[in-house]
Write a structure and sequence with these properties.
Blueprint lengths: L2 E3 L5 H7 L4 E3 H4 L7 E6 L5 H12 L6 E7 L10 H7 E3 H4 L4 E6 L15 H14 E7 L1 H11 L4 E15 L14 E10 L2 H4 L5 E7 L3 E7 L4 E4 L9 H11 L25 H17 L11
Parallel strand pairs: 1-2, 1-4, 3-4, 3-6, 4-5, 6-7, 7-12
Antiparallel strand pairs: 8-9, 8-10, 10-11, 11-12
C-alpha cells in the first residue's frame, strides 16, 4: 500500500526511483479507505532529506498512511526554503485541534543546550502533552527521545566526552516486546549525538522498559509500558551517505571530528560506506506502525484519547 504524501513533494521523485509506492493526496481522497494519519514533527535542519528518510520507511507495509508534516511555529529554519515550508508544512498551532493515529518527532542539532535553553522548548513541551491525548502512539528519535524522557519522567541527558558517531551493534533485552519482533540477535544502527541517557536513570521509572541497548552506544530503544511512546536514541532512518555528509560538514568547519566508527570499510573515508542497517530500520518502523498504531488506534479517529 502507498504512503499518501502532499502533492508535488520533492521526496516523491527519489522514492519513485527506488520503486517505492506513493500516492499524492489529491488522488488518495477519492479512495474509500481509512488511511492512518501520521504527523511528522520535523525539526532537523535539512528537512527535505529527513522527509525522504522517514517516508522511505513508512511505505514498507500493507497499511495506507497519510502524512502531515508539522513544525514548531516559533522556529524559522535556516536551511529549508520558506516556500517549501509554506507549501508542505503546517505549524503545530494549525493542527493542534486535530487527532492523529501516530506522531513522529525527529532529532534536532541542539544537544549542546539544556532543554530549557532551546528557544522552542515550551512549544515542544506543549506538543508532547498534546500527543498524550490526541495521538495513539508517538515515535521519538534521538534528541526528541531525550526530550520526551526528560519531559515526562525527569530523566536527564549527560554530555559525552566525544561524539557518539558511527554504526554500532545492538542487542535485544526483551524479545516479547512487539517493537523488537524480527530483530536479529545482534543488529546495527547509526548514532550521531553528543549526549546520552543512562540505564540507571531509566530503570528507576516503572512505566519504562529498555528494549535494546549497545555495549558501545548505550541505551537505544525504550518503550512506555502503555505503548504511547517509543523512544529511539539512534538514527536507523539515516540513508547511506548521512554520516559521511555530517563528517565532511564538520571537517569543513574545522571541528575536531573523528571518522564515524564501523561505517567506512577499513575506516577509510575515501571508500563508500557499507550499509547494513536497512533491515533493522524497516522492521523498527513497521513494528511501530503495525503494533503500536494500527492495532491500537480506533477506526473513528475522533475517539483517540
Amino acid at each position: 500500500m502507498p504512503v499518501i504524501i502532499p502533492d508535488k513533494l520533492p521526496a516523491k521523485g527519489i522514492l519513485l526511483q527506488e520503486n517505492i509506492f506513493t500516492i499524492e493526496h489529491s488522488k488518495a481522497i477519492h479512495q474509500d479507505i481509512r488511511a492512518l494519519r501520521i504527523a511528522i514533527l520535523n525539526i532537523m535542519p535539512l528537512k527535505e532529506a529527513t522527509e525522504t528518510h522517514i517516508l522511505r520507511l513508512l511505505t514498507n507495509s500493507p497499511l495506507q498512511v497519510e502524512i502531515q508534516f508539522i513544525r514548531p511555529g516559533g522556529h524559522e529554519p535556516k536551511n529549508t526554503p520558506h516556500q517549501h515550508l509554506e507549501y508542505f508544512y503546517k505549524t503545530f498551532e494549525e493542527v493542534s485541534h486535530q487527532k492523529f493515529d501516530g506522531l513522529i518527532i525527529t532529532g534536532a542539532p541542539v544537544e549542546h543546550l539544556s532543554f530549557e535553553d532551546v528557544h522552542y522548548w515550551e512549544e515542544i513541551r506543549e506538543i508532547l502533552d498534546w500527543s498524550a491525548h490526541n495521538v495513539t502512539s508517538a515515535l521519538l528519535i534521538c534528541w526528541a527521545a531525550q526530550a520526551g524522557l526528560y519531559h515526562f519522567h525527569g530523566i536527564p541527558k549527560y554530555p559525552l566526552p566525544s561524539k557518539m558517531f558511527g554504526n554500532f551493534d545492538h542487542t535485544v533485552n526483551n524479545r516479547r516486546s512487539p517493537i523488537a519482533r524480527g530483530f536479529d540477535d545482534i543488529f546495527p544502527a547509526p548514532h550521531s549525538r553528543h549526549t546520552e541517557v543512562r540505564r540507571s536513570d531509566i530503570e528507576k521509572v516503572g512505566d519504562l522498559e529498555i528494549i535494546s541497548e549497545s555495549q558501545e552506544a548505550g541505551v537505544y530503544i525504550v518503550v512506555s509500558r502503555d505503548g504511547k511512546r517509543v523512544y529511539v536514541t539512534g538514527h536507523s532512518e539515516y540513508d547511506p551517505d548521512t554520516l559521511r555528509n555530517e563528517y565532511e560538514r564538520d571537517r569543513a568547519k574545522g571541528l575536531d571530528i573523528a571518522v564515524p566508527e564501523n561505517y567506512f570499510p577499513g575506516d577509510d573515508p575515501t571508500k563508500a560506506p557499507l550499509v547494513n542497517w536497512r533491515s533493522h530500520a524497516n522492521l523498527l518502523f513497521l513494528n511501530w506502525l503495525n503494533y503500536y498504531v494500527y492495532q491500537s488506534t480506533p477506526y473513528d479517529i475522533k475517539k483517540i484519547g
